[in-house]
Amino acid sequence: MNALHQHLLDSARAAHHGEPAPPLPGTHDLATLRAALTHHRETRHRPTRDRDAHHYEPRRPAAGLRHRLRDWFGRP
Fold it and tell me: What DSSP designation does 51 have?
């Protein structure tokens, strides 16, 4: 079963129960990705319990991935 089949089943169930139809598959994917990236940026510099904050150097995310995402979504 793919996402379209699941959406059709959910829409039929919602119509049967008199509820609003669910959003189409992929409607909130971009917002979810942006929220995940924002969360990652905010939490990646926090030291963990077993690392000393003075000796911890956070890794930079892969520049290639950052550029591919920028090109894909058209954001600077």
Answer: S
- pLDDT per residue as tens digits for the range 4-59: 899 999 999 999 999 999 888 888 889 999 999 988 888 776 655 655 555 555 56
Which helix or strand (DSSP H or E) is residue 35 part of?
helix 29-43
In our burial notation (b when 16+ CB lie closer than 10 A, e otherwise), range 51-72 reads eeeeeeeeeeeeeeeeeeeeee
* Residues 71, 72, 73, 76, Cα dihedral to 10°: -10
List phi, psi (to 5°) of 4: -70, -45
